[in-house]
Each structure stands twice: as C-alpha cells, then as structure tokens.
Specification:
The structure is a homodimer. The first copy, chain A, is mostly helical. Chain A is 59% helix and 5% strand. Chain A folds into three domains: 43-80, no CATH class; 92-455, no CATH class; 508-650, STAS domain (Transcription Regulator spoIIAA), CATH 3.30.750.
Amino acid sequence: MSNRISNNMGADDTDNTSLHSLPLGPEELPYVHKVGVPPKPKLLKEITDTLKETFLPDDPLRPFKKQPRRRKLVLGLQTVFPILEWGRDYNLSKFKGDLIAGLTIASLCIPQDIGYSKLAHLDPQFGLYSSFIPPLIYAFMGSSRDIAIGPVAVVSLLLGTLLQDEIDPVKNKLEYQRLAFTATFFAGVTQATLGFFRLGFLIDFLSHAAIVGFMAGAAITIALQQLKGLLGIKKFTTKTDIISVMKSVFGAVHHGWNWQTILIGVSFLVFLLFAKYIGKKNRKLFWIPAIAPLLSVIISTFFVYITHAERDGVQIVRHIKQGVNPSSVDKIYFTGDYLVKGFRIGVVAGMIALTEAVAIGRTFASMKDYQIDGNKEMVALGTMNIVGSMTSCYVATGSFSRSAVNYMAGCCSAVSNIVMSAVVLLTLVVITPLFYYTPNAILASIIISAVLGLIDLDAVVLIWKIDKFDFVACMGAFFGVVFASVEVGLLIAVSISFAKILLQVTRPRTAALGRIPRTSVYRNLQQYPEATRVPGVLIIRVDSAIYFSNSNYIKERILRWILDEEETLAEHKQPGIQSLVLDMSPVTDIDTSGIQALEELYRSLQKKSIQLNLANPGQVVHDKLHASEFANLLGEDKIFLRVADAIVMCAPKLEQV
Amino acid sequence: MSNRISNNMGADDTDNTSLHSLPLGPEELPYVHKVGVPPKPKLLKEITDTLKETFLPDDPLRPFKKQPRRRKLVLGLQTVFPILEWGRDYNLSKFKGDLIAGLTIASLCIPQDIGYSKLAHLDPQFGLYSSFIPPLIYAFMGSSRDIAIGPVAVVSLLLGTLLQDEIDPVKNKLEYQRLAFTATFFAGVTQATLGFFRLGFLIDFLSHAAIVGFMAGAAITIALQQLKGLLGIKKFTTKTDIISVMKSVFGAVHHGWNWQTILIGVSFLVFLLFAKYIGKKNRKLFWIPAIAPLLSVIISTFFVYITHAERDGVQIVRHIKQGVNPSSVDKIYFTGDYLVKGFRIGVVAGMIALTEAVAIGRTFASMKDYQIDGNKEMVALGTMNIVGSMTSCYVATGSFSRSAVNYMAGCCSAVSNIVMSAVVLLTLVVITPLFYYTPNAILASIIISAVLGLIDLDAVVLIWKIDKFDFVACMGAFFGVVFASVEVGLLIAVSISFAKILLQVTRPRTAALGRIPRTSVYRNLQQYPEATRVPGVLIIRVDSAIYFSNSNYIKERILRWILDEEETLAEHKQPGIQSLVLDMSPVTDIDTSGIQALEELYRSLQKKSIQLNLANPGQVVHDKLHASEFANLLGEDKIFLRVADAIVMCAPKLEQV
C-alpha cells in the first residue's frame, strides 16, 4: 500500500524521470509519500460501523464483552438499576453526607413545590406529590449522584402556559388536572423512548446559547408572574408577556395593591436575597440560603396566624389536601381529542425537562469526574415521569438550584433524594394543615429569589465575546420569552439553532494558503500575513465536507478565488495562474454532488489551462475519488500527501525547505 | 504578529531555556513557528462579511464598482434584462442556429404540451398557452442560453396530484382551473422572492441523489398513468401509486381495453423509441427523435380521420380551444380558503420547478463554460410564472428533454425560445382544429418515450458506488413516489437529505494520527498503516467544526479514544499516555458549547495527568480560544502550528526528521 512515487533518499537510486528533470540538488529533493489507500472495508461492516457510531458512540456493551452468562445478567440489572452497583459500596459515612444533603434540599423544596404548582395552575399538594414519588424512582434508576429531582420553575411555567391554552384551570379544574397528568405521561414516554432508542443526541440540537437566553427569559417571566402574589393583586392577566403583566400591575395600583401583603413579601424577599448573598460570599455558609425559605415560611405563617392579617386582605394558602399521592391512572386521557393535545404538550415539556436534567447531570458529573450515560439517564427520567403521571404528579426533573445545594451540602449518592422524599412524605401526611396561614406573598418571594439564579449574566457576556451568532440566538430566545410567550421563545431558540447548522453546511469557509517562511508548512494567508504566495500557484483550502448542500457554492467560490487572484496579478503585471492546489485536509467527506462539483471545476479549469491538484484527501474522500473515476480523470499523480509535495511538482523552481 | 517561540536557526542564538534542555542536536532542532494571531476584525466588518458571504457569494455588484452613474444605470438594466447585453452582439449566423433550434423544440413541445396538460388535469390549450407567454418573458430576463421553457412532465404531475386533492377536476372544472392559476401565481412569487432575497441556496438542500430518485419515480408514475390512454381504458383510478394503477389496468382487461387504441399506441411507441435509439447512436441525427413526435401526431391523426377509428372506441383529443391566451387575472383566488391552499401548492410546485430549471441551467452552462447567476435566474422564472398565471398558463419551467434537443440543434441564445413561442402562437391561432382527430394513445406514447429519459440508471450506479447514504436517499425517494405518491416521495427525499446534514453535524469523524516514516507529517493511522504511533502521546484529529450539536459527542469520543488506547497499552504492558495532541486543522469553527466541551476535556485530562496540546487551530478558532480565556487556562505554549511541533515538546526524545 505504501507506494513512493518519488525518490528514495536511502539505498535505491531515483528512477523517476519527471523528478530527474527537476533542477533540485539531491539534498533538497524532498521525500514524497503516496496518499494512503487502505483496503476498502466491506459494505456491511461500513454500515454497521456508521450505525454504531451514530447510536452507540459510548459503546454501552463494552463491560458485557467476554463475561459469563450469569455475570451478564447481574451487569444487565445493574445497568437498569445503578443502585445495585453503587449500593454495595454504600456505608455509614456516605449516609451521613446524604442525610444532611437530603434534609437541606427537603427544606428548600417544600416551599418551592407549593409555589411552583401555582405556576402550573395546580393545587399545592400536586407539587409536593411530585417531590415524593419521582425522586424515589430516580434514586433506583438514575446515574447522577448530585441531581435533586422535583418540580422546577421553568417546566411548571411552560406546562401551565400550554395547558391553559387548552383548558381553563379555574372553570374546568378536573379536566385541567387530567390533561396535566396526560401531558406528564407523554413527557415520560418521550423521555424514555429517546433514551431507549439512543436518540438522546436530539436534545443537543438546542444550543447552549439558546438555553441560556431561554432560561433567563423564563426567569424574568416567572418573577413577573409573582408580582401578583407579592403585591396582593386579585385580578391578574393570564398572559405571560411583560407588556400584559405590566398593564395588569399598574392598572391595579389604586385599588388592587395591598400594603400589608407588600410589607410581608418585600421584607422577606430582602431577607432571602441577603441570605443568598451570604451564601455566595462564604461557600461554607451555603446552608443559610438553603434554610432561609423554610424559615421565612415558618415565621410569616406564625405572624399571620397571630395577627390574622388575612382579614386585612393578605392572601393565604389555606387548605392543602392531606395524605399521600392518590392514584391517577384512570385520569389520564388515553382516547379522544385531549389525547393528542396532551401528547403534544407532553413532548415539548418532556424535551425541556430533559434538557435541564441532562445539563445538570453533565455539569456535576464533570465536577466530580464521573461519567453519566445520557441515554440511561433519559430512561430513568422517563420512567419516573410515567410512574409520576399515574400517582398524581406532574412533570418532575432535575432542579438547578436544589442540585447545587445538594452538591454543596455534601451528598454522596442518590440517597439524598430518598431522604428528601421521606421528608416530603412526612409533610404530606402530618404537617400540611400547618401551611393554612402561609401568606402567598412569601411563596412569591421564595420563587423570585430562586429563579433569579437562572439568569446567568456571565454566560451571556462570554457568549457575546466568543460567538456573535450564538449571542443572537441567546437574545432571540430571551426576548421571545419575555415579550411574547414561552412557546415563541422556544421556537425562536430552536429555529436559530437550526439556522446556524444550515448556515454552517451551506457556506463553509475557504482560504488561500501561503508558505510559512523557513518551513514547508502552508497556512491561511489571512491568519499568517508573513506567509508567502507561491508564484503561479493558487493554493485553496476548503474547510468543510463537500456535500450537496454546499458543493455548488464551493465550486463557484473557488472559481471566484481564481478570478480575484488573476485580477490582482494582472494589475501588478505578473504572469497568471498555472496551477490550483486544493488542500483537502479539512474535507472529511464528499458525496455524489461533491464529486460532480469537482468534475465541473476540473473542466472549467481545463478551459482556463489551469492544472488542478489535490493535497491530502482523507481516506473516505480518496475512496470516493477512485470509486467515481474522478481520480483517473484528474490523474493519480495529481493527488499528493501534502501541499508541499504538490508545490514541488507545480513550481519546481521554488526553493524547498 | 509573527512570534517565534523557538530558536532562530539563522543569525540569533537560541535563548529559550526549555528548548536548551532538549537533547536535540542543532541540525535536528526544528524551526517552530508561532500560531498566527492577526488583528481581530471589527465587529461590524465581521458581520457584514458573513452576511455578504451568505447572501452575495457571487459578488453581484462587482461590475458596478468604479463606474459612472450613467453606466451603472445601463448595467442595472442589463442585469434585469440580459437580452440588452447579449442582444447587442446578436447577428444573423446566431439567428440561423436559433431558428433551427426553435423550430425543432416547437415541433417537440406541441404534442408534449397537449399531453402534459392532461397530467395536470387541465384542458389541452392550457399546455399550449404555457408554451407561448412564459418562454417569451424568459427570453428577455433569463441568463441561460440553452434552456427550453414550457410545461414539464414532473411539475404537471405534481400539480395535478396536489390540486386534485383539493378540488375535483371534472365536477368543478372552473374552480379547479382557478386554483391552478392561483398555485401558478404563488409558484412564481415563491421563485421570484427566493431569487430577490438571494435565498437560492435553499434549493441546494434537495440532494442530487434524492432528485435522481424522485425523477425516476416520477417518470415511472407518469408512464403508468399513460396506460390509460395507451390501452384505451375509460375508468381509471385517480391515485398514482403503482398498486392502484395496476389494479385499474388489470381490472379492465376484459371489457376496458381497446385493441385499435393499443395497436396505434404501441406501434407509434415502438417508432418513437426507435427514433430515440437512432438519435442516441448518432448524435448528428438528433433531429430524428426531435421530429418524430410531431410526425407521429400528423400520421396518426390523418389515419384516424380517414378510418374514423373514433367510432370503434379510439379516444381522440376532440376540441382544443382556438385563439391566444385569455386573461386570467380575475380568476386567481386572492382571498378565502383557496388562497391558502393555492399558496401551499404553489410553494411546493415552484420549488420543484426551480430545482429542475436550475439544474438544467447549470448543466448546460458548465458544458458551454459560461456562468449563470442562480438568483437572477430565479427572478426570471418567477416573473415568467407570475405573468403566466395572469394569462391562463400553469407552472412552466425548463424541460430536460427539450433543452437537450435545443442544445444539440445548435441554439445560440434565448431567441430559440422566442421562435418556439411564435410557432406555438401560430398553432393556437390557426391549427388547433387540426388536432381534433388526434388519438389520445399517441399522446400517451409521446409522454412515455419522453419521460423514460428522466430515468438515469448510470447516475444510480454511480451513487451506489460513491455514497451508500445517498443511495438510500435515492431509493427512498424513488419508492416513495412509485408506491405512495409524489408528495410522499418528495417528503422522503427532503427528510433523508436533512437527516444526512444533521448526521454530519452531530457525529463528525475523529481519527488517531501517526507519523509517516521519514517525514514530519502526521496522518490518519487507518489510512496510512505504515505510519507509527508516538510513544506516550495520543494524537487525535477532530474532523469538523465543534458546535453545540456535536461538542458533547466530540468530548466523549476523545475520552473513549484515550480509554481504548490505555487499554491496549496496558495489555502490552507499556507505559500510559502522557500527552494528548489535538489536531485542530479541520476544526474550522467553534462556538460557546465547543469551548465548554474543551474546558471539560481539559479538566478530565488533568485528573488523569494527561497534558492537552492543540495543533494548528485556524484563525477563527484561535480568536475564540483567546476570547474565552481558554488559551490562558491551557497555556499559550500548548498551542502549536503543527502536530510535529507539538510532538517535539511532548516527546523530545523522539528522533525528528
């Protein structure tokens, strides 16, 4: 396979006549290595390799190889229930960490749950239900050690908005609940299906930048919604855009604001933000912001109870249904019109919930340096939501704020979720009546202080610095959510993300190369202004696979490079171009349209008497050049290992280094 | 800008201590050139450059530069009406060529037009109308010299299928016609808009392979539809899939087939195919297949007229409305439900028509080596269809078969279209009554022999050889059209084309590199089995821009490369990996998610005590590495111009070539 078209500086004498004629001394004669043509893989192997790389890039069956049958069964069970694996090494010292972390996130989640269920237009107990069953399931099936499971602000808002468009949550309460469970069921099915069929990469199509913008927009929207509770306004818009909300708020200035409510709400908001500030300043005091919400609830509830502020118009939570989750299997719509609607809402909510959970899982896994399997994780989250939908829960996922607290409180495993779940169970069975006098304002304060953490200004600044297109996606999603609605923001985010991908594949970069002084390396002339052009030779690098989506553009762009170069040369009264060298290093693949474009380019160049040369085609490209006979048309001797070798042939008089 | 981190083999002494410690003799000490950091372009310039490259890659304003105002006006007019440009050099010898070509394509188009309008479920005169006005408009505005404009088989079939789904063409003839004009209007608007906003690249998203499959499938479908006319069947299915058609055909065996019709149809089909064969064998006899259809029509019409075969059940064309195109401005639906439907159908038909016309334009332009401006071409086609929709024409575009005849007959400019248009006008005004006795069977034979040319078996074989994925797209589109419907086939073609793009950006290739013996070039170990690994160093090349859609995959794939390599090394009891060199040559861009992935990779490697090095980042990537501070985190001295330089630092003991 390893042919040498040129001389062998070692034992053999050069016998290549075309090289003999070159005016190069033997010490300058470079070693020219042939482009590699390994044996072509069998078709079936090629296909299975591609499929494997697409769907099983993490090689999940690796540990099963060369194992006895019994061991394979154990490994299989451990794959589905990772608790069987890490549970065997579990010990008391780990439990101590998990216990503290579990209690901390429980104290944080109880008031949040009650508030978030309001965002989803559901009764408070449904939030608590969703913090009981789903975390339990996740603890057995999930592979992240740090994630804290439960209802989260953004998904609650999204679900509330989408469901409200279909059914009025006040007038048709029961139907609304049923549709919520239906959506939760299909959210779970979507998640589990994506994981099972290893299509997890689909969520990668929502770009990081778009998520940052979407989250920030959702945070602002959620905070604005809380003005209702914080100011004690009774009549409030059902829309979520900033203009409608502001109209609602200022329309209610004279007769709708309740100063007692504002007093309670604002003072506790200040307290919560101060607690957050302390936690940020000193990382060891992380428990202060973690415990502050529950503390606020206790104090404010007690305060309302003794002053009977509810008589002065301070709105309170009142009744929360006591007891564990009732079954909701019979409430899910499996037929009819609402099945379709529930499915649609479920898919959207499930994808967003997944995006959030996977992002959290990855972040903490890379901080503690363990691997999490995205697809396995999706199956776990999906199962948890399917079971949840049958036990009166709505869509649960990993929460940013609570996972961070979990991590800082020293959690060691998913046992902290079990602890939290146990505490929530206790709350449901025993202490829900104690929340009767809890003012709504305090819940609003807690939610505002929680969602402010979703606004990541540093990330926005970094995005601006790194990639302007990403910044547009980020801002598009942000303004879409704030000024229109959650769905519009999401749609903008997805569209811009896709537009970026399409732009990338339609308009790849091309660059003219020059020789870096005193080397035989050829690089972009724009990046290396000190590089020199080779007289009579134009060297162009194509920075992308050549596919149908860009083959025409690439062909025409190369012809334009030639036109530009010839114009410049003519201006300086220099001779024209004799050779074009295409550096194919970044061309990782080519398809039929690409080959066609190359052929057209070749013919156009022939008419201009310019010789086409290719440098460093990769394996796949080289195979296809041969399969299509283009290599024969061009001439095998016009394909080189590197640009320098091509230059030796094109411009033999040029001094070589 | 051009820094050198290493020694200068020339005048200066080396003063770099880290290099002093390397055990390399001065003759082995390679010249290490710094990665180029040109001044960052201004933000505004960056944005305008990107926009220009996306929408104006062909630099259409180039000729306007440095011109006086008056000249600019002339150039502007010439841009819109290219006839003003080439018309000035027009002469008699060119007209001779165009006259012959125009007469030839006219003789071919008249019978085809009558047949194709049947495919679109429209009366025969509408096909003739569409060969009169649109070619005239195109001749003034179009830039292709070889294209022959008129109704084409595939678009007629597509339009017929889509329109039939909305309105019954027999029962509601007038509404059907009105919807057809509405669709034509919006097809024109779509085409002109795409061209005007320079979004022509959108049609590049339908891959060549998908088009080949789609065209072949459409050809089969159209040929099958002609069995109705060829066999003289009266009751025929309105579906287009092969199964329904075959049921219809064989269901009519005993009482529906008409032997006189079959005799006429089949004998002339044989004649037409033989004429085609002669034309293919001897390219100079191209006029034989070109004239054969009209000849068949004349002979068979005469034959039916004298034998009165129509009394024996041979179906004939009967009445064709005489006279030029009536206005249809008031027939277009500008309001109501049909507006939306017409718009939808128009967009689809317009895109397909565009794809066909642009492909033809490009093919012949590259054969005669002139440039056509895709966007300008779309404006011309769009205008022609808009005007057409107001003059009782349906969607016209460039025809493959007639353009080829046009080219071979020696056309020199769009004047051949004007000639054809004049002949069609004459036909409409004078000789339509002569078509009264033309048997439908002859039209069926003409269409079958025409569409068989759309089946490009050679292209299919080539696609199979070059790219298996393309072959799947091709077959998917083909079977979709044949077994389901034109829309399904189209949908499959577009979906597979998109799936390919998405696959490309989600699962890019990575490769381990080794050193090619006796060079300092590092290449894919799989492609060059003779290349050698560098002990203690793993060199990985990432073959794609790193974007949000693949950043995670790339990170995890690289970690898996390390895992695999370490396993192999452990098996052979060799020391582990100390350094990872990432060859960034093909990484043309990186976004925020990509930078994040690199950071995560860096941290994971740190925990494994593996040093990360980057080789040859491009300009954009290098800028972003700096903007994000990742370059500082990694260390500026870990970024190298090429892999060989990185290896010098990582494995200093390795002998250098």
